[in-house]
Amino acid sequence: MLSRSVDRNRSIEELERHRWPDPPPDSTPLVRSVHELRRRAIKDLTVEDLRRLVSQDVGLPWLLPVALDFLRETAPNEVETGWYDDDLLSAVLTRSEEVWREDPRLAIHLDETVRILTDLSPYIRREVDAFRATLADVL
Question: SS3 string of the chain?
């Protein structure tokens, strides 16, 4: 389990030891949401919250392991139900090359998880192919 060392009782703000100022009053809903989610304990984040934060590159050292564990744990259900959380998978797959090169074991874990899945949509398949092509020397 990749996220074993992540203290899920703490927020990204606590783990980073950096409090962001409140967003300006005219901020977009996305900006307000990300600010609020950084203050929430990781254990209280939903899958959609994880997707939102990961897709904004917020808290990746802690949230990527949590997201990757979730994706791995739910992958076998895809075979049974024919459904998989493509949004979180897409958010994870599309992180920058540098993120994966900083911790190649995360990239390998993601690649192994994707290999479990049997019915990926065409757009996710393209993201998987791009991920693998970019990190072929790591995988």
Answer: CHHHHCCCCCEHHHHHCCCCCCCCCCCCHHHHHHHHHHCCEHHHCCHHHHHHHHHCCCCHHHHHHHHHHHHHHHHHHHHHHCCCCHHHHHHHHCCCHHHHHHCHHHHHHHHHHHHHCCCCCHHHHHHHHHHHHHCCCCC
The structure's pTM equals 0.92
* Tens digit of each residue's pLDDT (9 = 90 or more) over 42-88: 999 999 999 999 999 999 999 999 999 999 998 888 767 666 668 99
